[in-house]
Amino acid sequence: MQKNLQTRFSTRQYMLSRDFELYYYNEHYTSKVDTHTHDYYEFYFFMEGDVSIEIEGQRYPLRYGDMVVIPPHRRHRAVVHNHAQAYRRFVFWVSREYASRLMELSPAYGYLMQRAEVSGKNVFHSDVITFNATQFKIFQLIEEMQMERFGREARIPLLVNDLILHLNRMVYEEENPAKVKEQDLYQNLIYYIEEHLEEELSLEKLAGAFFVSRYYVAHVFKEQAGISVHQYILKKRMQASREAILGGENISQVYERFGFRDYSSFYRAFRREYGMSPKEYREERLR
What is the CATH number of the domain that holds 141? Predict the structure, then answer.
């Protein structure tokens, strides 16, 4: 199947389409492409061969799974060291206009392109598992582009955007492991709080559940949510209490169930959140 998706190699270094082009090359090196530039972004995915990439005079030896991002107007060429060896790679071209439209939707689409443009980092390594996920998305896109299936014109842009976002996320998470760890902890805290609203939810309890310090829980939560853990738990308990009261539960049982020491503290918190007492709220909503 993959053989059917291959493209005959061409030395052309300009785009025919307005937005993007994608090629899968797998051949023995026969046609030399000299140092050149172009006015679009090039994503180059290396799979097989004895090859280096040269960008602005700097050579980088390539290994399986490497991705090279070449911004517009950067002088570059592939240097093939062993012409007898098969040379296999994907080449993905994205116009500046299409990249700009994506970045207007979300800056996340542009992280990788701006990283290459501003910092000058062009070669990004990935492990086998990560690159397999990238290959799957690329083959899925090539297959859709080559087949005449219903909905093809609608699905191709979705797959292109998904691939570009995947590449940005892959590099961002590789370069920012601490941020990813914090986001994972935050999501787990949210889930834990939802599942244990009727239990004690002190900082000590949360820290113990995830084997981290109280300070780290407080820091991560405030960083991700913009409010403290205590404020978030109080809001979730208020919402749960409101639903229980509207469902006909006895108010005295509700405040005890959701961790309030006494009715007066529950009454103050409820009035502060909803502008009226629990009893008034129920009468107002069930009128």
Answer: 2.60.120.280
Q: Which domain holds residue 12?
A: 3-175
For residues 130 and 258, membership in a common domain is answered with no
Residues 90 and 196 in one domain: no
pLDDT of residue 137: 94
Of 175, 201, 229, which one is at a domain's C-terminal end?
175
**Residue pair 143/5 in contact by the 8 Å Cβ criterion:** yes
Mean pLDDT of the 159-182 span? 88
Judge contact between 20 and 93, C-beta under 8 A: yes
Domain count, the chain: 2
For 241, the enclosing helix (H) or strand (E) is: helix 229-246
Q: Which of 224, 39, 20, 36 is nearest to 109 (CA)?
A: 20
* Tens of pLDDT, residues 127-166: 888 899 999 999 999 999 998 999 999 999 999 999 999 9
Per-residue pLDDT reduced to its tens digit, 209-257: 888 888 888 988 888 888 999 999 988 888 888 888 888 888 888 888 8
Same domain, 201 and 93: no
**Crossing angle, helix 177-195 and helix 214-225, to 10 degrees?**
90
Choosing from 148, 175, 202, the residue where a domain stops is 175
Within a 13 Å sphere around the CA of 125, how many CA atoms are in the beta-carbon half? 5
> Which whole-number Å values give the CA distances from 1 to 4, 87, 139, 140, 142, in the listed order?
5, 18, 10, 11, 11
Given a cut of 60, whether residue 1 has pLDDT beyond it is no
135 and 44 within one domain = yes
Report the alpha-carbon distance of residue 253 to residue 274 in Å, rounded. 19
Report the Cα 263 to chain-centroid distance in Å.
45
Q: SS3 of 23, please?
A: strand
Question: 143 with 109, same domain?
Answer: yes
> Is the separation of the CB atoms in 106 and 112 below 8 Å?
no
